[in-house]
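quick one before i forget lol
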Amino acid sequence: MTKRRVVVTGLGLITPLGIGVEKSWNGLVQGKSGIRKITQFDASAFHTRIAGEVEGFNPEDYMEPKEVKKMDRFIHFGLAAATMAMEDSRLKINDGNAARAGVFVGAGLGGLPAIERYHKVLLEKGPKRITPFFVPMLIINLAAGQISIKYGAKGPNSAVATACATGSHSIGDAFKVIQRDDADVMIAGGTESVITPMGIGGFNAMKALSTRNDEPEKASRPFDKDRDGFVMGEGAGILVLEELSHAIKRNAPIYAEILGYGLTGDAYHITSPAPGGEGAARCMAMAMKDAGADPSEINYINAHGTSTRHGDELETAAVKTVFKDHAYKLKVSSTKSMTGHLLGAAGGVEAVVSVLSIVNNTMPPTINLENPDPECDLDYVPDKAVRAEINYAMSNSFGFGGTNACLIFRRFKD
């Protein structure tokens, strides 16, 4: 049976570089850093006092004021990015197509800010002062739920929670829903906002975060020998995926085609990748098989590239395993060097970036790559964006628990 073709018709981004696709993309291409001192709480007692915060976001720009208090910040971000993507796609959901339009949007940690805030309320003021919206604020599937309610999308509705692979799994799963004819349109991606005392403190306890507090803009440095951990970010990345003939029929804008999806497990360790990046390599190979793409056809990889020692080295090793000699002809970059690591939103944001790379024939740089790790010896597009034809782009996401996701996008061809 011929596979149904799936294209990208709408994009939405909220990142530490700006609100909206244009601001975020321009910041990436210009090599700007969105990492600053933490302002959302007093971080003076923490080992890490920096993060990629979203500045100037007003949820009332995207929803009624009375609705704002019913949602935690990660839902605000998800709903806002979905609004951008839907407006961009010019898609209208109505009684005639509602059952064929769905939402797959996930998060890694969900409503951690709400949990911290209302635990304090419980202790200080008692249980009667807990808001009735507390549970809907914090559960991860309410991002997808609120988006579906806003747009009346009655098709498949789900929320992936696979740590840092969440956004990519959400998009890949949504792609397969359309491909197997269970929907014609899917709103898909990831959202996250957990720059909180418990969020920062928890990752500090694992010694996972950078402590380069005096130089925030230089703290996220994937593939650099002097990297000392990742920098937490927040935001959302949402795509509108659509069956090709459905998109053509309504004269929708088509950014790219999604061709391949891989997902594997390391079955190795709760936080460390498998030796040699074995699980990541199988994931990339699986995505290319699904896409029917040869390794030599891939032009650009938006790497997971978190700025952790083992993660960067093992992703590099996995790329070499899969691409062999072509690995040294590829361009590979980590946009986390500028946005920080958006956890459950990372895959959604980086999928949008991969699509934009194809559209603009531009590969964003890896900034702060000043002293390359000898184990990381590929072309990571250091410091400055590179313009070159991109027909195929790959986006990698790997999460705690050994969960891996890989997406492949191609320049759209009739």
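fyi The mean pLDDT is 97.
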